[in-house]
Write a structure and sequence with these properties.
Strand order of the largest sheet: 3-10-9-8-7-6-5-4
CATH superfamily of the largest domain: Aldolase class I
Bound molecules: flavin mononucleotide
Structural class: alpha/beta
Number of strands: 10
Largest sheet: 8 strands, parallel
Distance between the termini: 47 Å
Number of helices: 14
CATH architecture of the largest domain: Alpha-Beta Barrel
Shape: globular
Helix content: 40-55%
CATH class of the largest domain: Alpha Beta
Strand content: 15-25%
CATH topology of the largest domain: TIM Barrel
Length: 324
């Protein structure tokens, strides 16, 4: 069991915030396979305050989509507090502050991973959230800005001082982005320093890597990010592996096809046929990894315009290679 403040979770496997990906359909699909706590993608506090329509859409949820964490991005305690007041009446269970995003457009504004340079400011923003929020407040950090400034321990201690309920850490520096090796040692050090739970991120790509993260760092939970792209089964497989030491068989192509169609229909009801068709292309590629005759179908998916075309192409995944 994992406790994040007042929130008790049976599963230590959490669906990570993923910008442009962690929408309602994606979260619901992962929940079918045992994902318990899931996050929205990062939502800009200043866009919320300025009432951007796309931002409002990121907050759409349904009763089945719980427990839900909302992730905010911002660097001004006042704006973050005002953004929180805007979302306060919504249904969610955790609010997280992003101090990890490495994208230059974000860090240039002093947001995301730029906050790693300013642990005291980060503490002030988190304090502002803690005083407002009736749900647990958490923060997501990185190991540091670059290899010469690995300061996650100091940043995490400042964050804990603000009265938050857990720290999420991506064990790479901002400079590493999403590549290069994950620093298990720094995650373990932060875990030892904190009295609140530490949830680890970075190369959480398979049941074996998940077990490795728990064993090498002593972390209390992990977030699954790229490992869940086209692979909601990772929740079921990792859960079985952690509990019983055995990884269940990977899904048959027929099951993959069934889930893709379910996911696609959810995408259509959320975005409509036109936008949904375009959006699902990347999911088709992710779901199709490892299926032998997918290449030709990928080309068709990138030209498809309608639901019927998309469904036919997905069905063709389970046909024999010769008949495609
Ligand atoms: C496309 C993409 C979008 C991401 N968006 C977010 C985000 O909105 N908020 C966040 O905290 N992390 C975000 N991340 C980081 C992931 O949550 C995770 O920390 C990172 O991918 C490392 O985990 P992995 O190596 O297991 O994928 C994003 C990562 C990717 C690849």
């Amino acid at each position: 069991m994992l406790k994040i403040g007042s929130l008790s979770l049976d599963s230590p496997l959490i669906l990570a915030p993923l910008s442009g990906i962690s929408d309602l359909p994606f979260r619901l699909i992962n929940r079918l396979f045992g994902c318990e706590l899931a996050f929205t993608e990062m939502i800009s506090a200043s866009s919320l305050v300025h009432q951007s329509r796309t931002t409002g859409r990121m907050l759409v949820t349904v009763p089945l989509d719980r427990p839900l964490g909302i992730q905010l991005l911002g660097n001004d305690p006042d704006i973050v507090q005002r953004a929180f007041d805007i979302i306060a009446s919504r249904e969610f269970d955790v609010v997280d502050l992003n101090a990890a995003c490495p994208v230059p457009k974000v860090t240039r504004k002093g947001e995301g991973a730029a906050l790693l340079h300013h642990p005291q400011k980060l503490r002030d923003i988190l304090k502002a959230l803690v005083t407002r929020a009736r749900v647990p407040v958490t923060v997501k950090i990185r190991s540091g800005w670059d290899e010469t400034s690995v300061n996650a321990r100091d940043v995490a201690l400042h964050a804990q001082d603000a009265g938050i309920s857990a720290v999420f850490i991506h064990g790479r520096t901002k400079e590493q982005g999403y590549s290069g090796s994950v620093d298990y040692r720094i995650i373990g050090e932060v875990k030892k320093a904190l009295s609140i739970p530490l949830i680890a991120s970075g190369d959480i790509l398979s049941p074996l890597l998940i077990r490795r993260m728990f064993e090498e760092t002593g972390c209390d939970g992990v977030t699954i990010a790229r490992g869940a792209l086209g692979n909601p089964w990772i929740f079921r497989q990792a859960d079985a592996f952690l509990k019983h030491g055995r990884i269940p068989e990977p899904p048959a192509v027929s099951e993959i096809v069934f889930i893709m169609k379910k996911h696609l229909d959810m995408v259509y009801s959320y975005y409509g046929e036109r936008a949904g068709t375009v959006l699902f292309r990347k999911f088709f590629v992710w779901y199709g990894r490892g299926i032998s005759h997918v290449k030709h179908l990928r080309d068709l998916v990138f030209r498809a315009q309608t639901r019927d075309e998309m469904m036919r192409i997905i069905d063709a995944l389970s046909a024999s290679p010769e008949s495609v």
